[in-house]
Hints:
Layout: H1 14-30, E1 38-41, H2 48-59, H3 64-68, E2 71-74, H4 77-85, E3 89-90, E4 99-104, E5 108-109, E6 115-116, H5 123-130, E7 133-141, E8 158-162, H6 167-176, E9 182-185, E10 203-208, H7 215-223, E11 228-231, E12 233-234, E13 240-244, E14 250-254
Helix pairs in contact: 1-2
The chain binds ribose-5-phosphate.
Amino acid sequence: xxxxxxxxxxxxxxxxxxxxxxxxxxxxxxxxxxxxxxxxxxxxxxxxxxxxxxxxxxxxxxxxxxxxxxxxxxxxxxxxxxxxxxxxxxxxxxxxxxxxxxxxxxxxxxxxxxxxxxxxxxxxxxxxxxxxxxxxxxxxxxxxxxxxxxxxxxxxxxxxxxxxxxxxxxxxxxxxxxxxxxxxxxxxxxxxxxxxxxxxxxxxxxxxxxxxxxxxxxxxxxxxxxxxxxxxxxxxxxxxxxxxxxxxxxxxxxx
Length: 255
Ligand SMILES: O=C[C@H](O)[C@H](O)[C@H](O)COP(=O)(O)O
């Protein structure tokens, strides 16, 4: 039997516990052991607990056979490692383009469940997986819930993955055509001199637009710039969001 969420050992901080509570509840309440087989596993520090929970079910004799048959589709290098470390079966989106259910974190979630993602530079593969999934579940801690508009809590800007040779052109277009307040090519310092290179060998630009009142329109405008691979605005994609609160409870947002 896997441990009940209420009986788990303490972690190093309330924040980590909030992430774990969100992730464990999301898995427990959404995985259908009989029907689901292809599972998307996202990136970041919250989804770590999704993979951990699936790993616990794998060790549970009552669920072992079903979970051993799950094929987990990663959204990047970190996610691939999470799948392997928890003993889960790794698959690729090329082999399994139709995903039953996917779990991932978010940097900010607005009241309509539109998301900013890509704080960890994994947005392209995350969008590929989440939009290939019948059900996309977001797991987040209390800091990610926007009071109203995207861009309120997440001040770093919208992450945008760009083809390296186009970064100057995209930077100019974001400033002049889309009137971004601040545009920064993400650097890897101190761990790396120069730009962050994504798992797809692209660069990331963070473009600050302040409060985003129409994320759908902004996504379309950014996406139309030559050189943009994908934006970190995830529009009409999430079905349920689990927020772990600092008092140990969970809030659920859904359509
Ligand atoms: O590129 C990174 C991803 O979009 C993450 O899912 C996002 O940054 C949230 O990460 P965390 O769970 O660490 O807050």
